[in-house]
Design brief:
Blueprint: H1 2-21, E1 27-46, E2 49-54, E3 58-63, E4 69-73, E5 83-88, E6 92-97, E7 102-108, E8 114-120, E9 127-132, E10 138-142, E11 150-154, E12 162-163, E13 176-177, E14 186-189, E15 192-196, E16 198-199, E17 203-207, E18 215-218, E19 228-235, E20 241-247, E21 258-261, E22 269-270, E23 280-285, E24 294-298, E25 302-305, E26 313-316, E27 321-326, E28 331-346
Antiparallel strand pairs: 1-2, 1-28, 2-3, 3-4, 5-6, 6-7, 7-8, 9-10, 10-11, 11-12, 13-16, 14-15, 15-17, 17-18, 19-20, 20-21, 21-22, 23-24, 24-25, 25-26, 27-28
Length: 347
């Protein structure tokens, strides 16, 4: 009997510890770790280092333990590209510019070699987002050049990139494009690729075989105007995903701007109607939250949800944070207008 009671008490203790770990955030402390005259919409974390890319050709890296910084700047002829996409493999960092010409650079880990690995010249070129699944396979997407989204892939670690032809992709609707708000239009989970669009049509494009075949699914996010739709997406795993956005020209409107999927993007359900944030620039799942906890930054501040987006707590009024990535389940980094900040969440 004593053994049974002991085991029961130990079980209760473990359950209590588990519940404590899943307790909701109640506060956040924001500390600026980098200042510069730069608009940053793309960051990537690698161990204890944060890389960023932004406007006017600027990019850099911050050692998170020492805050030691490296700053670089790229120019092509007289052009200083605007970078809104960044990705990292074990060997290099990749920066992708937005407008014509589309320029994709590979930067060695020691920062000594900067190589242009892809260039696209077309007046309609506008790349929005880029992600790597592992050290070999990566995807970048942009606004339509023809009658499909502009998607390029690499299978050799970013040394070469190939365009997926429109004959292999779903056709876009009139006025359908994407937003380069926070490098979160593309999400890769195992063999699945998720891509979200915005504008007059706002949908979710899904490939379950690394880009060979595609399906496209409707979403209930507000759409119909040039500056409406999905601005950001994240997937906790292959099934649980969250999209957010809204109307950039009416940033206080918090209806029809957030939705969740539990079936890998096939169907979406609006959540948090008329509550929480308005226009969203970036949304991310909190690690180890079982897909329940989310943090969003955008035009109405930083908001947090612990119940899959049903309700939201405003934690910061800061409207100038554009992108966000988590280091672990209580520390994240955000960037935006002229700075990078560390966010420490408290329970």
């Amino acid at each position: 009997m004593k053994n049974i009671v002991f085991l029961f008490c130990v079980s209760i203790l473990f359950l209590a510890c588990g519940e404590e770990k899943q307790m909701a955030f109640t506060s956040v402390k924001a500390t600026a770790i980098h200042h510069d005259s730069i608009s940053i919409r793309a960051i990537v974390l690698d161990s204890n280092e944060l890389w960023f890319a932004g406007s006017n050709g600027k990019f850099g890296a911050i050692e998170l333990l020492t805050t030691k910084k490296f700053r670089g700047r790229i120019n092509k002829d007289s052009l200083h590209p605007e970078f809104r996409s960044i990705a990292k493999t074990k060997d290099a960092v990749f920066l992708l510019s937005v407008a014509n010409p589309g320029l994709l650079y590979k930067i060695s880990n020691d920062r000594k070699v900067v190589e242009l690995v892809y260039e696209e010249n077309n007046e309609k070129v506008f790349y929005d987002s880029m992600q790597f699944l592992d050290n070999q396979f990566g995807v970048a997407m942009g606004d339509p050049v023809g009658n499909c989204l502009n998607i390029i892939v690499t299978k050799d670690g970013g040394n070469s990139w190939q365009k997926i032809p429109c004959t292999s992709l779903p056709k876009v609707e009139e006025g359908e494009a994407a937003f380069a708000a926070s490098n979160s239009n593309v999400v890769l989970r195992n063999n699945k690729i998720f891509i979200v669009s915005g504008g007059k049509k706002s949908r979710c494009f899904v490939s379950e075989d690394s880009g060979v075949t595609w399906n496209v699914y409707e979403t209930p996010i507000v759409q119909g105007k040039t500056m409406t739709g999905i601005f950001t997406a994240d997937f906790y795993d292959e099934n649980i995903g969250f999209i957010a956005g809204g109307d950039y020209e009416n940033q206080e409107n918090n209806s029809d701007n957030k939705a969740i999927t539990n079936d890998g993007g096939k169907t979406w359900k609006l959540v948090g109607q008329n509550t929480g944030f308005g226009y969203a620039s970036c949304v991310q799942f909190v690690p180890n939250s079982k897909g329940k906890a989310l943090v969003c930054v955008g035009g109405t501040g930083l908001h947090y949800s612990s119940d899959s987006g049903k309700t939201w707590l405003k934690m910061l009024d800061d409207k100038d944070l554009y992108t966000l990535r988590f280091k672990n389940d209580s520390v994240a980094y955000a960037a935006g207008k002229n700075r990078v900040v560390e966010l420490k969440f408290g329970r």
